[in-house]
Amino acid sequence: xxxxxxGPIGLTGPIxxxxxxxxxxxxxxxxxYCGVGCGVLATPDxxxxxxxxxxxxxxxNFGRLCSKGAALGETLGLETRxxxxxxxxxxxxxxxxxxxxxxxxxxxxxAATIDRHGPESVAFYLxxxxxxxxxxxANKLAKGFLGTAxxxxxxxxxxxxxxxxxxxxFGSDTVPGVYEDLDEADLVVLVGSNAAWCHPVLFRxxxxxxxxxxxxxxxxxxxxTATGDEADLFLPVNAGKDxxxxxxxxxxxxxxxxxxxxxxxxxxxxxxxxxxxxRQLAPSLASxxxxxxxxxxxxxxxxxxxxxxxxxxxxxxxxxxxSAQGTDKVGAIINCHLATGRIGRVGSGPFSxxxxxxxxxxxxxxxxxNQLAAHMDFSPANIDRVxxxxxxxxxxxxxxxxxxxxFDAIAGGRIKALWVMGTNPAVSLPxxxxxxxxLRQLDFLxxxxxxxxxxxxxxxxxxxxPALAWGExxxxxxxxxxxxxxxxxxxxxxxxxxxxWWAITEVARRLGHEAAFGWEGAADIFREHAALSxxxxxxTRDFDLTGLTDLDPPSxxxxxxxxxxxxxxxxxxxxxxxxxxxxxTPDGRARFIAPEPPQVHEACSKSHNLLLNTGxxxxxxxxxTRSGLSPRLGAHLPVPFAELxxxxxxxxxxxxxxxVRVESVHGSVVVEARLCPGQRPGTVFVxxxxxxxxxxxxxxxxxxAGTADxxxxxxxxxxxxxxxxxxxxxxxxxxxxxxxxxxxxSGWWARARIGEVIADLIADERPPHEWLREGMGEAGPxxxxxxxxxxxxxxxxxxxxAGRVRLIAFIERSGRRLDWTGPxxxxxxxxxxxxxxxxxxxxxxxxxxxxxxxxxxxxxxxQPQIEALMESHPGLTVAGLGTRLKAGTxxxxxxxxxxxxxxxxxxxx
Length: 909
Ligand SMILES: Nc1nc2c(c(=O)[nH]1)N[C@H]1C(S)=C(S)[C@@H](COP(=O)(O)OP(=O)(O)OC[C@H]3O[C@@H](n4cnc5c(=O)[nH]c(N)nc54)[C@H](O)[C@@H]3O)O[C@H]1N2
Ligand SMILES: Nc1nc2c(c(=O)[nH]1)N[C@H]1C(S)=C(S)[C@@H](COP(=O)(O)OP(=O)(O)OC[C@H]3O[C@@H](n4cnc5c(=O)[nH]c(N)nc54)[C@H](O)[C@@H]3O)O[C@H]1N2
Ligand code: SF4
Ligand SMILES: [Mo]
Known about the structure:
There is one protein chain. By secondary structure, the protein is of the alpha/beta class. The chain folds into 6 domains: 1-76, Single Sheet (N-terminal domain of TfIIb); 86-158 and 358-519, Rossmann fold (3-Layer(aba) Sandwich); 160-352, Dimethylsulfoxide Reductase, domain 2, CATH 3.40.228; 610-727, Beta Barrel (Barwin-like endoglucanases), CATH 2.40.40; 731-842, no CATH class; 854-902, Orthogonal Bundle (Arc Repressor Mutant, subunit A). Helix content is 29%, strand content 18%. The chain contains 30 helices and 34 strands. The strands form 8 sheets. A 7-stranded mixed beta sheet has the order 5-4-16-15-14-6-7, covered by helices on one side. A 6-stranded mixed β-barrel has the order 21-25-22-24-23-26. A 6-stranded antiparallel beta sheet has the order 28-29-27-32-31-30, with no helix packed on it. Helix 3 (132-146) runs parallel beside helix 16 and helix 4 (160-170) packs across helix 15 (326-339). The longest helix has 19 residues, at 99-117. It is globular, with a radius of gyration of 27 Å. Bound molecules: ligand MGD (2 copies), iron/sulfur cluster and molybdenum atom. The site of one ligand MGD has 33 residues, from helix 6, helix 14 and strand 21.
């Protein structure tokens, strides 16, 4: 038998929190996934779980949740959790130690490393999934008391170009608008955002505005996504060419009398240079269209719509930020809003959609290596101010290394000690194979995490610290619209897990900084954070929480969602920025930006002539350490894949369902091909969610080049030159098992959880009889087999004593994936007697309507059910599907896919 596989989709039975809080009323908290920051009501069930509902009073979601938020109750089990500090002993084995031992060792080692190699030999790599209080504590310890600004975060991979873009244009990292603008806009432009899948509750707000006031939706993305499908106008931009589209728009606005001359004159600088540059980049409509790869008609339609619609919000996300020219893209977008004065007014403005639940909080505390704290940078005045406020003995006086540089410095031996907190860089950083090597090379690696195993934890840490997870941790997060919400605990801490801020504080105290780290709880840290934002501020800095500086613990506990700025106690602040100018630049004017010509396709070579785009799928979160635990979320897209255009595929002999190798000069993945009309020729899309814990070769970070943007240091994650080839492993198949079983693995595999079933997709060189039987041990006495060696076919079904299916394996000589939907449906059938067991081996479901891809995760509605209804009800609508099958009636995240099905198109682009 193979050893149980660690990681998100584990194999042990359920382990739950200690009972507690029985009969407790619902606890108001915030969803731990995306930056929409939805309010959640969690009602503990007293058995370690909780019922989850949307908080009707939260201003981000007014009670709505998407499929991920709605499934949070399924992710509270402890089976994959890290519950005790672990230390690596002399034999390289992790063994349990007490917190005191662990914390003493960190303090001792950091001090010794700094003594020997200087403060910059120590680094922290943090996460937008930490609470603001954790983030503040880490930043204060490192930058103020250890003297190293080598503190960066996974937000470098996520928001850094927006931060740099804001600072270049506004002089500060300010998001000017609020969510209400999406309700009030007449035009919403989504650039590089798959909001239908990644910010679903905001997308529902946009859809509601479309229904209510006829808001138009334009989507700009090289890939026709579920979001693009919903658009009134879809612009399939060539990768990286957004700057051209928005430069062309600036020219159009100037030539068609759509400028707000008064706003430009009164509140901005640099317009003439920006316009001249835009004219160079987009000398004519035809040129802009050709460079961007869209038709002149479509581009003109977009420009007209923009010019004629005063209320326009341009939302952008990773198709803009994760780009070697991301900061310029942000600048080109902001230029068009400044030029029309459409900023900070109801229903208009540029709007960066943040990714992680606390991406914004991280920016507020200075989680990035080039920020100090409270939106201050490393200018001499700010260094002096923060030093005095913290009474810091060795404040870092220059910017630290940004994520990619930081890992280069680790590889080069300049950084000796690293503390990773709340992120999985061995998966998520570009050149991830090099990152793993670098991590293994460290003299001292500490990892604070919720889980006992992930790819980063596989890189030989010296210490592992168990952190409180969502539902246990307590503090604040800030969402995309600057709204600070409490995340509150509703479960008791399991094992010896502790808050991240507590571990940092304890290390600081051991280093002799008791007074500066004297906090008793999260409320104390928040109050200090607010006080720093207020310190010598007087309106000079956007981030201002003066009104929250005297929150005592009880008022912190009951703090309602609160938007910043809060310059006054009591008084409600204005919620938008910049309608009347007053930017945070030295002259108070916004700066127009003159972008560089984007160079993306130039990176391709003869041997690597396709561009690899990466991103997210609807129902998984990042490396699946939490969302992978949910039975219903796994069913949506269970297999790691590469989306290809059919013409590209045909040229390479690739069929839908073939295995393909996607390879760059840095590394490769082997995943399943999906041919997809929404994919531009010359491009491939691979999702980011698979790691070594869930697949043998699906970790796409190893392929990514990650060329950094010159201003933000954010790596390009959307356009890596790659080559593709078909991988012919003659035997393909799957092993489905009840989730408490171990299954054998073969050459290539990927693992998913589909309902109560663990699905291992398999491909191998060798015929199954050579490895399968051996790997499985003795099949039970009830097993049925079908072995046809000449046809290369092997099928097996095994049953427990009561006749319930416990395992089904189908392996065959086949160039494509075997359909598992029929066999999967047998797991839901009642125990079957010996006479019917052989039927399973036919591959058909017991009940023809069962099985199939789950489209609606909330109500478990599968594609065949929908298709059956479509047949019996011609003219069926989304509403009709809702009435009859409940599909799409809860979170609505699947509505774009329902529409596709009703239009006779394949689901899930
Ligand atoms: N389901 C789900 N939701 C999530 C997350 C998750 O893991 N799963 N993660 C959260 C986080 S941290 C983040 S950062 C956000 C990300 O949210 P999004 O940015 O919406 O998601 P991505 O899939 O990374 O990329 C968005 C789109 O950018 C497009 N794109 C690629 N290159 C270009 C280009 O050159 N120009 C343009 N215009 N578009 C381009 C891609 O094709 C893709 O459709 O999602 C958050 N929400
Ligand atoms: N190719 C490519 N790469 C990408 C992206 C892409 O689009 N393409 N997107 C990038 C983006 S935008 C992002 S945000 C990153 C995300 O990438 P990661 O941050 O690496 O992904 P996660 O799976 O969210 O990892 C979070 C880890 O922190 C743990 N954790 C969660 N909460 C806490 C906590 O409170 N305390 C502690 N100590 N641990 C906690 C979880 O168990 C998990 O192991 O990926 C980036 N990488
Ligand atoms: S949109 Fe979904 S994932 Fe994002 S915060 Fe809301 S419920 Fe959570
Ligand atoms: Mo992100």
